[in-house]
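Lecture 7 notes: from sequence to structure.
We start with the chain below.
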Amino acid sequence: MPLSKPLPAELDPSARQLVTDLRRLRDHSELTMRQLATKTGYSAKSWERYLGGTSLPPREAVEALARITATDPVPLLALREVAADTWGSRRRLEPEPEGPARPAPGRFPHLALIAGVAALAVALLSALLLVLRLGDDATPAVITAAPRSAASSPPPSYTCHITRIQGHWSAGINKGRDTEIGYGDSGADVAEAQCLLRRAGISPGGIDGMFGPLTLRAAKTFQQREGLTVDGMLGPHSWKALRG
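Predicted structure tokens for the same chain:
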């Protein structure tokens, strides 16, 4: 399938970015669709739909492609989570995810025999354990939860103090910095951005200083509204727009 084929127009920015990233990984790997199917367990036709933007790839398919291309799957899975919220409203419904390809019946009879023997062994072992358990004292074991380490410190808490200073909005948390932040980051810069996103009328979830899926969605929504590059990364241009 030629991956230069345009993506469906109804794809939202998150889904479009996800498919674009998956295409890039596949192009860099130089794998054919058949090779991709062999290495991931998902059929070539399934990958044609996933990379063509007509079907939302399952989490397992995304993880498999990231694994064989030595790529961190976390950003891809975050994009998929955001895209899944809007995928159901598209004109075409998502088909049931296909599982890994299974061998046709009769091709590998010895595998079926081994599976049957293993299942029988598990059943016999379970029955033996049940008999032994019934013969033991019925006094239940007391399970004590391990005490939490006294040295562990509670996560920092942030409070938005929205003020207008010399024509710019501030939440009073990161001293006006415009450090670039993105998915997976944490700290005062993220909390400042969360406060300013909420001030702009877009909920990032809680003000916890964690750049997770909800903050990623809010950042992309804000960037799209402001006519900025919709990549979920908050750099100088996005900070300038947030501070007004």
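Points to note: DSSP finds nine helices and two strands in the chain. Residues 20 and 51 are 8 Å apart (CA to CA).
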